[in-house]
C-alpha cells in the first residue's frame, strides 16, 4: 500500500497535466483504493467557466471508469500554488458518496512539505444523504 507521501507525490505529478489556462491554478489528485490501486486526476477548465472539472472528481471518475470496485481510502490533493489545497464543497460531497463504512482521509501537503491528514467528517459534517424516513 502506498504511503501518504507517495500518493502526494503522484498528485504532484498529475498537477503537471492540469489544463487551467483561465485560473492558472493547477491541481493534481491521487485517489488510493483498498485494492492498492491509485488513480490520478487534474483540473480541466473550460471557456464556459462553470464546466470546469476539479482534480479530485477527475481522479474518482478515472477510478470508476477503470472498473475499480474496492473502497476509496484516501484522496491526496496538491497544487503548486497553495499549501494545504483543501477540496471544494462539490468534491467533498463526491468523496462522501463513496464512503461505505470506511473513513475517507484527505491528504494534503503542509507548510513544511509534510503530508497532513483530514477526515472527511471534519471537512463535511452533517452532509446531505438520501436518507428516507
Ligand atoms: N480546483 C480543483 O481542481 N479542486 C478543488 O477542490 C478546488 C478547485 C480547481 C478548479 C479550477 O480549475 C481551479 O482549481 C481554480 O478554482
- CATH homologous superfamily (4th level) name: Cytidine Deaminase, domain 2
**Bound small molecules, which ones?**
tetrahydrodeoxyuridine
The number of distinct helices, counting runs of at least 4 residues, comes to 4
Which structural class should the secondary elements be placed in? alpha+beta
Low-pLDDT runs of 5+ residues are none
**First-last Cα distance:** 39 Å
How many DSSP-defined strands? Answer: 5
Q: What is shown here, in short?
A:
By secondary structure, the protein is an alpha+beta fold. 27% of the residues lie in helices and 21% in strands.
Describe this structure in words.
With 133 residues, the chain is α+β, with helices and mostly antiparallel strands. It has helices spanning 4-15, 55-65, 89-97, 120-123; strands at 28-33, 38-42, 72-78, 105-109, 115-119. The chain has a five-stranded mixed sheet. The mean pLDDT is 96. The structure holds tetrahydrodeoxyuridine. Tetrahydrodeoxyuridine binds at residues 20, 23, 25, 27, 43, 45, 52, 54-56, 87-88, 91.
Write the topology of this structure.
Elements: H1 4-15, E1 28-33, E2 38-42, H2 55-65, E3 72-78, H3 89-97, E4 105-109, E5 115-119, H4 120-123
Parallel strand pairs: 3-4
Antiparallel strand pairs: 1-2, 1-3, 4-5
This protein binds tetrahydrodeoxyuridine.
Tetrahydrodeoxyuridine is lined by residues 20, 23, 25, 27, 43, 45, 52, 54-56, 87-88, 91.
Amino acid at each position: 500500500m502506498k504511503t501518504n507521501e507517495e500518493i502526494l507525490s503522484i498528485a504532484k505529478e498529475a498537477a503537471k497535466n492540469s489544463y487551467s489556462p483561465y485560473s492558472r491554478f493547477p491541481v493534481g489528485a491521487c485517489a488510493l483504493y483498498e485494492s492498492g490501486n491509485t488513480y490520478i486526476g487534474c483540473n480541466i477548465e473550460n471557456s464556459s467557466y462553470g464546466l470546469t472539472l476539479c482534480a479530485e472528481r477527475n481522479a474518482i471518475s478515472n477510478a470508476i471508469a477503470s472498473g475499480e470496485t474496492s473502497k476509496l481510502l484516501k484522496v491526496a490533493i496538491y497544487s503548486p500554488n497553495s499549501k494545504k489545497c483543501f477540496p471544494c464543497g462539490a468534491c467533498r460531497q463526491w468523496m462522501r458518496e463513496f464512503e461505505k463504512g470506511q473513513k475517507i482521509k484527505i491528504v494534503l501537503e503542509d507548510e513544511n512539505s509534510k503530508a497532513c491528514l483530514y477526515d472527511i467528517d471534519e471537512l463535511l459534517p452533517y452532509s446531505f444523504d438520501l436518507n428516507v424516513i
